[in-house]
């Protein structure tokens, strides 16, 4: 009960001052995680880790599912088909290179950690976070093509990392019963195939039912908001039943539902967005109160060093390689490379490692937690000033070269914080 009261009080405090703090670069994740950390240190008995970590994982998963679904609903598929160059290179080239770079750095920083565990760590910290990166994605001062690339990348890369993570988890626990390439292909087929099948199937059913009923005026005004929320959860449930990735199912399902729903998608995604934001807020409070407090005694200089390198070299160099040859200027490459925050997906992976009892799991979890904590702090505080600097540069650059890669327009959907009719 004390934990619930603490969570509610923190949520009320953030709600009251959220606008003023957000304008100053204090993001919800930064405020909520810090508040959770304070509560966890002052009232350590309020949160019981063995029970709450399982609950925290479910809340984090559901938050990510709802945010991925609602974000995907806003994407214009017809426009995206002609603008896949940047996102596809970030996903198909940048993501694998990020994993390889993470493995290389891990072998240097953690020479005594098993090779399989190093691979597992690199995969856990490869995906970027759609929710933490939203502040940059929704800022119209950033060119639309840059925002779209970051939006699509963060929406898909965590789902693509799931099959690799499951294989690495099996190897680390010495449970793999087939060859590594075979296991990777099998998991990719199951996770991606099951996720896509669940997302497309649930979204077609949910979207068609909505479109049919809404066109005839059968849906009550308030219940219009419930249908996409229910469809998002249905995507997740079916994917889990099929053994597929709930994250891929949510993102693909959101794309399909938005396409079927048509123009109405901008009006009916509000409840799904808000529910995802609320669950994410609870996750960040729990992150501060549980995860940070839990790993504080095991933080070493190696853990901090890997976290710093993961947010910089391990992310930024692969992005530069992936975008090479696209006529993209260095400031844009650096901007995209820096704004790859780690968040909910990495935390979910970390909690799974802890539950599975992976050897050296404490080191892995500590590194994930420290990396996410640093990402919340550094990406949150740097978003306002770096967006301002990049805006000045990009405005001048596009004005001098209207045909530049950054100047190519990309149709951006309604921003998450922008309400229909506003």
TrEMBL record:
Chain segments annotated as transmembrane: 28-46, 58-75, 95-125, 192-213, 225-257, 278-297, 303-325, 332-351, 363-390
Residue stretches making up the Cation/H+ exchanger transmembrane domain: 15-388
Region of interest called Disordered, as start-end residue ranges on this chain: 403-422
Mode of membrane association: Multi-pass membrane protein
UniProt cross-references to InterPro entries, sorted A to Z: Cation/H_exchanger_TM, Na+/solute_symporter_sf
Keywords: Antiport, Cell membrane, Ion transport, Membrane, Transmembrane, Transmembrane helix, Transport
Residue ranges with Basic residues bias: 413-422
Gene3D superfamilies cross-referenced by the UniProt entry: 1.20.1530.20
Localisation: Cell membrane
Source organism superkingdom: Bacteria
Principal cellular location given in the protein's record: membrane
Pfam families: Na_H_Exchanger
PANTHER family, per the entry: CNH1P (PTHR32507:SF8), NA(+)/H(+) ANTIPORTER 1 (PTHR32507)
Name this protein carries in UniProt: Cation:proton antiporter
Organism: Microbacterium awajiense
């Amino acid at each position: 009960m004390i934990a619930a009261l603490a969570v509610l009080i923190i949520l009320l405090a953030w709600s009251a001052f959220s606008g003023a703090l957000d304008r100053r670069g204090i993001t919800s994740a930064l405020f909520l995680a810090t508040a959770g950390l304070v509560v966890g240190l002052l009232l350590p008995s309020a949160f019981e880790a063995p029970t709450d970590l399982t609950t925290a994982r479910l809340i984090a998963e559901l938050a990510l599912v709802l945010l991925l679904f609602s974000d995907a609903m806003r994407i214009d598929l017809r426009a995206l088909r002609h603008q896949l160059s940047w996102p596809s290179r970030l996903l198909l080239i940048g993501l694998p290179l990020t994993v390889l770079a993470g493995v290389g750095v891990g072998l240097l920083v953690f020479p005594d950690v098993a090779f399989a565990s190093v691979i597992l760590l690199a995969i856990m910290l490869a995906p970027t976070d759609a929710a933490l990166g939203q502040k940059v994605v929704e800022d119209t001062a950033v060119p639309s093509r840059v925002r779209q690339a970051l939006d699509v990348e963060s929406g898909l890369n965590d789902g693509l990392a799931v099959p690799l993570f499951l294989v690495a988890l099996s190897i680390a626990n010495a449970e793999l019963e087939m060859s590594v390439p075979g296991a990777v292909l099998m998991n990719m087929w199951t996770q991606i195939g099951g996720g896509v099948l669940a997302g497309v199937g649930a979204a077609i059913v949910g979207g068609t039912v909505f479109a049919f009923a809404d066109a005839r005026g059968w849906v009550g005004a308030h219940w219009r908001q419930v249908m996409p929320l229910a469809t998002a959860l249905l995507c997740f449930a079916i994917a889990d039943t099929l053994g597929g990735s709930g994250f891929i199912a949510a993102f693909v399902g959101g794309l399909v539902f938005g396409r079927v729903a048509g123009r109405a998608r901008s009006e009916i995604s509000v409840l799904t967005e808000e529910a995802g934001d609320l669950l994410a807020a609870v996750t960040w409070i729990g992150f501060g109160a549980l995860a940070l407090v839990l790993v504080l005694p095991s933080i070493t200089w190696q853990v901090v060093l890997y976290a710093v390198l993961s947010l910089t070299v391990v992310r930024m160099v692969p992005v530069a390689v992936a975008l090479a040859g696209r006529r993209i200027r260095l400031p844009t490459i650096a901007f995209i490379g820096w704004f790859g925050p780690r968040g909910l997906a990495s935390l979910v992976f970390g909690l799974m490692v802890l539950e599975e009892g992976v050897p050296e799991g404490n080191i892995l979890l500590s590194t994930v937690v420290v990396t996410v904590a640093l990402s919340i702090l550094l990406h949150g505080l740097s978003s306002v000033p770096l967006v301002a600097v990049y805006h000045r540069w990009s405005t001048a650059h596009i004005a001098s070269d209207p045909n530049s890669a950054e100047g190519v327009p990309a149709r951006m959907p309604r921003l998450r914080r922008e309400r229909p009719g506003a």
